[in-house]
Amino acid sequence: MSKVRAALGRHFADTRPVAIPAYRRLLAGQAVGFIGFQLTGVAVAAEIYSITKSSFWVGMMGPVALVPLVVFGLWGGAVADAMDRRRLLLISSVFTWVATIALLVNALTAKSVWVIMAAVFVQSSGFAVSSPTRQAIVPRLVPTDLVPAANTLSFLFSSLGSVLGPLLGGVILATTDFSVAYAIDAVLFTATLYASYRLPALAPLGEVTAPGPKAVVEGLRYIMTSPIVLMSFAVDIVAMAFALPRALFPQMAAERFDGSEFAFGALSASIALGSVIGGVFSGWVGRVRRQGVALTVVIALWGLSVALAGLAEPLWLCVALLAVGGFADLVSAVWRQTILQTYAPDEMRGRLQGVFFVVVAGGPRLGDLRAGATASAFGLVPAWVGGGLLCAVSVFAVGLSVKSFRHYRVGS
After folding, report:
1. How far is CA 182 from CA 98, 168, 192, 264, in A?
2. Which of 207-216, 265-274, 337-346 has the highest mean pLDDT?
3. Tens digit of pLDDT for each residue in 53-107?
4. DSSP letter at 281?
């Protein structure tokens, strides 16, 4: 029996970090809150498309969200190194909750695209501070040897929320209206606030640098002197900016699937569904040694899967191919996050997580803009398929061009 259990453990996710109460609270709050966050993301895209009938305006949510993600992601990471991280997590989460309330009020009254943009800006600002703060907290709650497992669980539950949120959104939008989606998000987010409140105090360790331009520059300098970390960021930007088809989901559902709200929800959940499957069967991820080459390969797989999905006619096949891409994306995210967390000392970890967040969150917004603009110029299929193919070709050119990254092994 013990041999069977050990064999299964080599393939399934490592759940040992859940035994740590503080990490369990952090994970639970993130998991519940992310369902509502993704639900709101689906509702915002659908509401904008229903008002404007244009993928360009859906894509414009990319730059609207990108500016605060960059500014407050970098600044928030610096603040996370200079103050109690539990307190900062609570404050930033309140801003996200207020933005959801604004979306709810707008859906019930004005139904203005400009109000939606303003709310998304505020929501992104709060998220830009809370996300790197949350990730910087993880190594303070779990032993170093459990950091990869904790990251995998965090990504797994975030991905699960990214599945349940869009699927719930598809049902809600098909049966009620946008305001119900925003109301549910507001209720769910109270669980995130409570979980953050229950965390222990997390005062800064080591030398404290006052948050500001100097602190941000120190974090950027640290990254620039580490080619491994720098290249892990570069290949992720390629993956998201070139291949992410998220802004095209409303148009795909309208043109290929007769405007089906179910199809829109399924498309929105498909990538995250693959990430959930990847997280469940993630026991092998920590055993891969040549992670530089492996990152390049899985991101190329992401691009090719997206390209094939754009050509698929049946909904099930399109969803399945996007799920394959999501599987690859989860594996890539775990490797990149673990590299960053284990390289950085605690007094630098918030700033580096801020930069990491800007890349991870900003890349998809660039992808939204790229997808919406190219779809308006060349049509749905060229924008979708062309982006995936460009990603697959470019990531090999970028990922294999730096010798140290190409030969990087865990622990080297």
Report:
1. 11, 12, 16, 18
2. 265-274
3. 887 888 788 788 778 877 777 777 777 777 788 888 888 888 888 999 999 999 9
4. T
The two structure tokens encoding residue 152: 């995998």
pTM value is 0.67
Other beta carbons within 10 Å of 287: 8
Angle at 300 between CA 298 and CA 306, to 5 degrees: 105
Which DSSP helix (H) or strand (E) runs through 208?
Answer: none
Rounded percentage of the chain residues whose pLDDT exceeds 70: 90
Short-list 58, 134, 146, 42, CA closest to 93:
134
Task: Please name the residue that has the structure tokens 């900062």.
Answer: 88
Q: How far is 300 from 99, CA to CA, in rounded Å?
A: 36
Cα distance between residue 270 and residue 165, in whole Å: 11
Only one residue has tokens 């609207």, namely 64
Distance separating alpha carbons of residues 254 and 307, to the nearest angstrom? 19
> Please, what's the b/e burial string for 35-68 (b: 16 or more CB within 10 A of its CB; e: otherwise)?
bbbbbbbbbbbbbbbeeeebbebbbbbbebbbeb
8 Å CB contact between 375 and 383? yes
Q: CB of 193 within 8 A of CB of 90?
A: yes
* CB contact burial 3-33 (16+ within 10 A = b; e otherwise): eeeeeeeeeebbeebbebebbebbbbbbbbb
Give me the torsion for CA of 74, 77, 79, 80, rounded to 10°: 170
CB 346 within 8 A of CB 312: no
> Rounded CA gap, 240 and 333, in Å?
12
Return the structure tokens found at 149.
Answer: 């497992």
- The dihedral of CA 125, 330, 160, 111: what is its sign? positive
Residues in the chain: 412
Kindly report the number of other CB atoms within 10 A of residue 205's CB atom: 12
Which of the two residues, 356 and 37, has the higher pLDDT score? 37
**CA–CA distance, 148 with 286 (Å, rounded to integer):** 7
Selected residue with higher pLDDT from 345 and 70: 70
N-term to C-term CA, the chain: 36
Distance of CA 43 to the CA centre of its chain: 17
